[in-house]
Design a protein that fits this description.
The structure holds 2 protein chains of 2 kinds.
Chain A lengths: L1 E14 L2 E14 L3 E5 L6 H8 L8 E4 L2 E4 L2 E2 L5 H7 L4 E4 L3 H4 L6 H12 L4 H14 L5 H4 L9 H13 L5 E5 L7 H18 L2 E6 L2 H7 L2 E6 L2 E7 H6 L4 H9 L38 H5 L5 E4 L2 E3 L2 H9 L1
Parallel strand pairs in A: 3-9, 3-10, 7-8, 8-9
Antiparallel strand pairs in A: 1-2, 1-4, 1-5, 5-6, 10-11, 11-13, 12-13
Helix pairs in contact in A: 4-5, 5-7, 7-8
Chain B lengths: L5 E10 L2 E11 L4 E5 L6 H8 L7 E6 L2 E2 L5 H8 L2 E4 L3 H4 L6 H11 L5 H14 L16 H13 L5 E5 L7 H18 L2 E6 L2 H7 L2 E6 L2 E7 H7 L3 H9 L16 H6 L3 E3 L15 E5 L3 E8 L1
Parallel strand pairs in B: 3-8, 3-9, 6-7, 7-8, 11-13
Antiparallel strand pairs in B: 1-2, 1-4, 4-5, 9-10, 10-13, 12-13
Helix pairs in contact in B: 4-5, 4-6, 5-6, 6-7
Classes of the chains: A alpha/beta, B alpha/beta.
Subcellular location (chain B): Cell inner membrane
Keywords (chain B): ATP-binding, Nucleotide-binding, Transport
Membrane topology (chain B): Peripheral membrane protein
Chain lengths: ~325, ~300
């Protein structure tokens, strides 16, 4: 089943000094049981894309348009707040980077998980609390009964993120969207949380969208990858292909710039310049000002996302030309 | 033997009953980059602040080019501050939003009463160019810059006094991947040009691998391992160092594997054990408490030593 369908999504924000074009024509989908990574740097539009999918953006200032924007076959375009809130949690649930700001400091962990359950299911408060304990056990919290009585400040960052995942799982969503879930965590805790997310996905068969700036997290967790830059999709494909033979010059540059890939003190391969300003994106391909392969046409027309090989798409006119040349 | 650029000897800092930094020994040789790595709560940032004397230690000595800074008053320290500068992670918080970039970069010169105002302005413009920005940025403000550009300004401000030691506390952690490489390269270039010695505090082992000559690993306020960078990555001896390295995501989807995770107790239980005869230096024997011992090749590890 198609869990997520996004076709030609545009998201902009009106500000006093003009329009910020955060997402400019993004399309991708997610099938059940599939895991998809969205990788990009700050301002690439990766988080805004998923926030638009769950209609988490305040409209206005946000303006969302798309040919298709749907969750498990339900269109989320132009539907009421009430209709979207029944889809959130049950069809798609989200885990954010900073659990401390997602949780309410004055209520216990158990209360907050139970509240989510009560909002979606006809159960008593006692049953909801019992389910909260079970959920905490499922995210491998050692003494789940005691932890239900804790307040957020009493838990470590890793434990809080486990609690957030428990909350996201409480309504057995078809798809879990994790937005930089491990970015604020120590590396050893990150490894544990990523393992937990993978295990739960394998166990439940839910779909997973992992949003991250970290190529290592992508390599470790997902089947398929969407690479975003400047509000657009640069490349999509199976994770192994993306890492072993990236098509788009941006993907290649990004992979090359990751430090510590080989032993020894050395200069890194940098990408000159900086990411495009979303208020004034460059004409043509958003990567052209930093691209070593850019030609005149790249500066004028934004290349469409085209199939370049089986299961692989890239938005670059230079990819095909270069492959023919090679 | 010439003195190290920066040396910490048995430095301790307690907050209440807790030792945040516990008898730490650290050496940054001249013209080298030493990385101080560890997770949150390891004491690495506190160690950096102690080295800079931005925080007073409860015990131990801090030596800058052989000179013991510990007994000096803040006033007596001032000339030494020129030789030791710092760059922090969050350039948004560390650059005054009301000052132009030129004023920010030139400010340390003013504080130390160096040059005329016009000369200071010229120097600031020269430093903007040295860190890869246009001299015209001198009249702009921090909010007009990207994160990477702000970090360049922070580097210029730190280096304008020509220090011999730079403490860099997670200078690349808030930056995007493509910009991170730019700042790492900038630090490398300036280090080579100026003969800088850098204490590079970071949780990012990938950056450390490309930048550092030597790595010091901290865990709960203690140094548990210290060795040349290649030796840490190829032959770490302490179970915590191994756990840290093992947790780093691998950039190859084909190399995915299930990891096993150790609790703090399991790590303690696996503290390496050596017999005194196996070691390079003669340690205390049969103490129950682990101690930092010397192995071959400037490799130090916290271990329990038996006779």
């Amino acid at each position: 089943m198609r869990l997520v369908e996004i076709e030609d999504l545009h998201v902009s924000f009106s500000q006093h000094d003009g329009l910020v074009q955060a997402v400019r024509g993004v399309s991708f989908g997610l099938d059940s049981g599939e895991s998809l990574g969205i990788v990009g740097e700050s301002g690439s539009g990766k988080s805004v894309t998923c926030a638009a999918l769950l209609r988490l953006l305040r409209e206005p200032p946000a303006k969302i348009t798309a040919k298709t924007l749907s969750l498990s076959g339900h269109s989320v375009l132009g539907i009421s707040n009430r209709a979207i809130s029944t889809l959130r949690g049950r069809v798609a649930a989200m885990v954010f980077q900073d659990p401390m700001t997602s949780l309410d400091p004055v209520f216990t962990i158990g209360h907050q998980i139970a509240e989510t359950i009560l909002a979606h299911r006809k159960v008593t408060k006692r049953e909801a609390l019992a389910q909260a304990v079970e959920l905490l056990r499922r995210v491998e919290i050692k003494n789940p009964g005691a932890v239900t009585n804790y307040y957020p400040h009493q838990l470590s960052g890793g434990m809080l993120q486990r609690a957030m995942i428990a909350m996201a799982l409480s309504c057995e969503p078809d798809v879990l969207i994790a937005d930089e879930p491990t970015t604020a965590l120590d590396v050893t805790i990150q490894a544990q949380i990523l393992q937990l997310i993978k295990d739960i996905q394998a166990e439940t068969g839910m779909g997973l969208i992992m949003i991250t700036h970290d190529l290592g997290v992508i390599a470790e967790t997902v089947d398929r990858v969407v690479v975003m830059y400047g509000g657009k999709v640069m490349e999509t494909g199976p994770v192994e292909a993306i890492f072993s033979a990236p098509l788009h010059p941006y993907t290649r540059a990004l992979l090359n710039s990751v430090p510590g890939q080989t032993a020894g003190k050395q200069r890194l391969v940098e990408i000159a310049g900086s990411s495009p300003n979303p208020s004034h994106p460059p004409a043509g391909c958003p990567f052209h000002p930093r691209c070593p392969l850019a030609v005149a046409e790249c500066r004028q027309t934004a290349p469409p996302l085209e199939t370049k090989a089986a299961g692989r798409q890239a938005a670059c006119i230079r990819v095909a030309a270069e492959m023919v040349a090679a | 033997m010439t003195a190290a650029a920066l040396e910490l000897r048995q430095v301790t800092k307690r907050f209440g009953d807790q030792a945040a930094v516990d008898r730490v020994d650290l050496v940054v040789p001249h013209n080298k980059v030493v990385a101080l790595v560890g997770e949150s709560g390891s004491g690495k940032t506190t160690t950096g602040l102690l080295a800079l004397r931005l925080l007073a230690a409860n015990g131990g000595q801090i030596l800058l080019d052989g000179q013991d800074l510990t007994p000096l008053s803040q006033k007596a320290l001032k000339p030494f501050r020129r030789q030791m500068q710092v760059v922090f992670q969050d350039s948004y918080a560390s650059l005054d939003p009301m000052m132009t970039l030129g004023e920010i970069i030139a400010e340390p010169l003013g504080i130390h009463g160096l040059f005329t105002a016009a000369e200071r302005r010229d120097q600031a413009r020269r430093w903007l160019e040295k860190v890869g920005l246009d001299a015209g940025y001198a009249t702009r403000y921090p909010h007009e810059l990207s994160g990477g550009q702000r970090q360049r300004v922070a580097v210029a401000r730190a280096l304008i006094l020509g220090p011999s030691v730079l403490v860099a506390d997670e200078p690349t952690s808030a930056l995007d991947v493509s910009v991170k490489a730019q700042i790492v390269n900038l630090l490398q270039d300036l280090q080579a040009d100026m003969g800088l010695s850098i204490l590079f505090i970071s949780h990012d082992l990938s950056v450390v691998r490309s930048l550092a000559d030597e790595v010091v690993v901290m865990l709960r306020g203690r140094v548990v391992e210290r060795a040349p960078t290649d030796m840490i990555f190829a032959g770490a001896r302490h179970p915590y160092t191994r756990a840290l390295l093992d947790a780093v995501p691998v950039l190859d989807p084909k190399a995915r594997r299930r990891r096993s995770f150790m609790s703090a107790e399991e790590i303690s239980a696996r503290t390496p054990r050596y017999r005194a005869a196996e070691l390079e230096t003669q340690p205390l024997v049969d103490t129950a408490e682990p101690q930092l011992v010397a192995l071959a090749g400037s490799h130090f590890v916290e271990a329990i030593v038996t006779g």
